[in-house]
Design brief:
single chain, alpha/beta, two-stranded antiparallel sheet, 10 strands
Length: about 300
């Protein structure tokens, strides 16, 4: 069982940003992730910094903490340039980078470059091309590819990743095509639960929906001849009907996490508190969860 955190890139590096990443390492989190967006929902009119530079700075400031995106998407990324950034990040961090990757969604990122927002099918089509190409770019010295959405002409990525054969992919998916990509290319699978029941469902409804997602992941793995147990299973919290309740107390977290570890999750991810936001929480409780939560679960 692992406990990780998400640090949103909303603070200036020299005005608390750096300290957050250092504190995450001191608290013993397994991984500290950040969102890979150009802005996000209720934070759109406030400070928001880039994921790759932030992770680069965090890699230089920390020593043991794993780092990653949760998640990167094709909305404004291209596999060729992303691969170069990831190889550089993996080198700077000494092999501590995990790429969380998903198909993306609607919102600011989906139209900021002037394009029309893609339909769910179009997002799935792009994702199905993006992930295998990125896999090749991170494992082969030179890649030439001419696809429907992406191309690469002798794209060079020497010397490749520090982690071999490449840094791990944590694939966020709930639909059949995304789950197949997770089975084929992922070292981990990520879910936030079922968004359809976020507003009206109960925590029990949510766990039942997630159980169904895990069953579908197992079937997707079986179809490609892979053991589903090989994949880590990551729950990004804050988007189930429980919302912020698991961070209200240590006991609340232990109850929430225990029920989800029983479903088969190997990693729970909690948001670092941000006052006056959807992720507001008591910093002292957050730190107590970080230092005592897994021990209470026997992990």
């Amino acid at each position: 069982m692992r406990l990780s955190t998400v640090i949103l890139p909303v603070r200036r590096w020299h005005e608390g940003g750096r300290d957050e990443w250092l504190r995450a390492e001191q608290l013993g989190f397994h991984t500290a992730y950040t969102y890979d967006h150009l802005s996000w929902r209720t934070f759109r009119d406030g400070p928001w910094y880039g994921a790759v530079p932030t992770l680069t700075a965090a890699a230089a400031a920390t020593e043991r903490l794993r780092l990653g995106t949760l998640v990167t998407s094709p909305n404004f990324r291209h596999p060729v340039t992303l691969a170069k950034d990831l190889i550089s990040l993996d080198d700077i961090s000494g092999g501590r980078i995990t790429l969380g990757i998903g198909a993306g969604g609607n919102g600011f990122d989906a139209t900021v470059l002037g394009q029309e927002a893609w339909t769910p099918r179009e997002r799935a089509d792009r994702f199905a091309e993006f992930v295998p190409l990125l896999d090749r770019l991170l494992t082969e010295d030179s890649v030439t590819y001419d696809g429907t959405f992406y191309s690469a002409v002798e794209a060079r990525n020497i010397p490749g990743c520090v982690q071999r054969p490449r840094l791990p992919f944590a694939v966020a998916a709930t639909g059949p095509r995304g789950l197949k990509l997770a089975a084929q290319h992922g070292q981990a699978w990520v879910t936030t639960g079922d968004p359809k029941i976020f507003e009206t469902g109960t925590p029990e409804d949510s766990r039942e929906a997630i159980r169904g997602q895990i069953e579908k992941l197992g079937k997707a793995c079986a179809e490609v001849g892979r053991d589903v147990a090989e994949l880590d299973k990551i729950l990004l919290t804050g988007f189930t009907p429980d919302r912020g309740a698991p961070l209200e107390s240590l006991d609340a977290f232990v109850d929430f996490a225990g029920k989800h570890f029983e479903l088969g999750f190997t990693e729970i991810v909690i948001h670092a508190p941000i006052p006056d936001s959807d992720f507001a929480a008591d910093q002292a409780v957050f730190e107590k969860i970080a230092t005592e939560g897994l021990a209470q679960l026997g992990g």
